[in-house]
Design brief:
With 152 residues, the chain is mostly helical. It is built from five helices and four strands, in the order αββββαααα. The protein has a two-stranded antiparallel sheet with strand order 1-4. The longest helix has 26 residues. The relative contact order is 0.14.
C-alpha cells in the first residue's frame, strides 16, 4: 500500500501529463535506416512525460548509472524538461510497471488462470508471486540508489 500511495503522489505532483506510449522498452523500438521507429502502441494513454522518460532512461540505461544519465541528458538537451526534486520518484513509472506485473501474477494465481506471455517463465504461479514480490522490493531499492547516484 505504501508503494502504491507513493506512486500515486508522484504522478499527481508532476504537471506534465500527456498522452504517451507508456511502454518504452527496447523491443518496442524498430531501428530503421531512417532512424528509430516506436512500435506497439497498445497501451497508449495518459502519463507524465517526465515519468515516462524516467522509465525509458532506466530501461534503456540497463541499470547503468552513466547510460541512464546519458538518456536523461539527451532528453533535456533536446527540449525536454524534468521537474526538480523528484529524486527516485522520477522512476515511479518503472516501479509501477513492476508492481503491475506482480498484480497480474497474483490475479492469475488467485483465479487459477493459465499463465500467458511473460508469466510462463515461472513454472508455478505461487512461486512467481513470491519471486515478483521480492523483485518489486529490490527494484524500489535499486531505483532509490540510482537516483542518489545521479543526484536527482
Amino acid at each position: 500500500m505504501a508503494i502504491t500511495d507513493r506512486l500515486r503522489a508522484a504522478f499527481l505532483r508532476v504537471d506534465d501529463h500527456v498522452i504517451t506510449h507508456r511502454d518504452m522498452v527496447p523491443f518496442n523500438v524498430l531501428i530503421t535506416g531512417a532512424g528509430p521507429v516506436l512500435t506497439d502502441w497498445e497501451v497508449i494513454g495518459p502519463d507524465s512525460a517526465s515519468l515516462e522518460v524516467g522509465f525509458a532512461a532506466v530501461t534503456f540505461g540497463r541499470r547503468n548509472t552513466a547510460y541512464t544519465r546519458r538518456v536523461l541528458d539527451s532528453y533535456t538537451a533536446n527540449g525536454g524538461a524534468l521537474p526538480e526534486n523528484l529524486t527516485e520518484d522520477l522512476f515511479a513509472h518503472k516501479l509501477g510497471s513492476e508492481l503491475g506485473r506482480l498484480a497480474s501474477m497474483l490475479r492469475a494465481a488467485l483465479e487459477g488462470q493459465p499463465l500467458r506471455g511473460w508469466q510462463t517463465r515461472y513454472d508455478d504461479p505461487d512461486e512467481g508471486v513470491k519471486l515478483l514480490l521480492h523483485e518489486v522490493l529490490a527494484t524500489a531499492g535499486r531505483l532509490k540508489r540510482l537516483a542518489a547516484e545521479l543526484m536527482i
